[in-house]
Amino acid sequence: MNIQATRSKIHNKEYFVKVFYIEKLNWYSQPLIKSLVDSYQSKNYYSEYTLATIAIDGDVNRFNEMTGTQTFESNINK
User: Fold this and answer.
1) CA distance 13 to 7
2) Are the C-beta atoms of 52 and 36 separated by less than 8 Å?
3) Fewer beta carbons below 10 Å: N end or C end of the chain?
4) pTM of the model
């Protein structure tokens, strides 16, 4: 086995360990994680980027809801 193949195997193992960890957090839905992995494996990076952007936007919204941060609109109406 050559060095490049070994690096590829290590990278894939590390990638799937990270995916497993993310699944265990229960922060993201299984269909979203599966879509991200499928997009990555098929090298559809635009799809992966779009899904990740939507997920991050949802995270920010959930964080704001949990911390009670007011929205811009609610500050204007005071």
Assistant:
1) 10
2) yes
3) C
4) 0.58
Distances (CA, A) of 13 to 1, 2, 37, 57: 16, 17, 13, 28
| For residue 5, pLDDT beyond 70 | no
Using CA atoms, how far apart are residues 28 and 18, in angstroms rounded to an integer?
13
Compute the half-sphere exposure of residue 72: CA atoms within 13 Å on the CB side of its CA. Answer: 1
Reading the block at residue 44, the tokens are 């559809």
- 77 or 61, greater pLDDT: 61
Q: Is the dihedral of CA 41, 45, 46, 52 positive or negative?
A: positive
H-assigned helices in the chain = 3-25, 30-41, 45-67, 72-76
Euclidean distance between the first and final Cα of the chain, in Å? 67
